[in-house]
Amino acid sequence: MPDNDIDTILSEAFRRLNEISRRLRTSEERLELVETNVSSNKDALIKSQADFSSSVERLGASMKNFDERVLRVENEIVRINKVLEKTAKSIEVDELRGTISLLSPLQSKILTEQDVRRIISDSKEKSK
Questions:
Q1: CA separation for the pair 94, 88 (Å, rounded)
Q2: Model pTM above 0.70
């Protein structure tokens, strides 16, 4: 009977040892799976950071290009304003048109000296 008890105890000990070994293997597999997932997540995070940094750099370059374009437009506006200051305003052009139309021989009647003498002599004759 004592052999039976020892066999039973040894059998129970081996069963428990096997159960503990199985649980240990299962835990090790789970740990490896967790480590793999953490490693994959770490790699994905590093890639995302690199993509984000690249996007920020492109955005910065675009902003610099935009700033340069805005500066060129501002300079062009200043140049155009200087040119416009030198050009005649519509009121000045209208005044100039009026002056030209007064002096234009096509639009006004110009009298020669002979015409004036004739008009004077005609008016003297009528008054007599």
A1: 10
A2: no
